[in-house]
Design goal:
Structural class: alpha+beta
Distance between the termini: 57 Å
Order of helices and strands: HEEEEEEE
Number of strands: 7
Shape: extended
Radius of gyration: 19 Å
Strand content: 35-45%
Helix content: 10-25%
Amino acid sequence: MNSSFFVSFRNLLILTVILSAHVSEAQVPGRQLHWSADGNSAVAGTQGDLVQTDIRTGRKTVLLAQDKLRQPGTNQRLPVSDFAFTPDSAHVLIFTNTARVWRYNTRATIT
């Protein structure tokens, strides 16, 4: 192959590494996918539900149905931007009602 191809590829690779190093975890918008502590399942927001998928079997389990995710005092669906479970998975923290601050939705109501 042409040596200029390798030089261009190397430069592109270096640029990608440099740019990706500037993205911190705090600036990444909601991931919507969270791994379990044992690494055997992942929880994702799917069609308004929080669904756990066992990666070994492919079995899906609804952990929190969208009918449970309603704004307090109303019948309106609660838009989930992100979520986080406690270490024991007994409680879930919902990141909702977001507003854009600077470049990312970092201001929100946490319920």
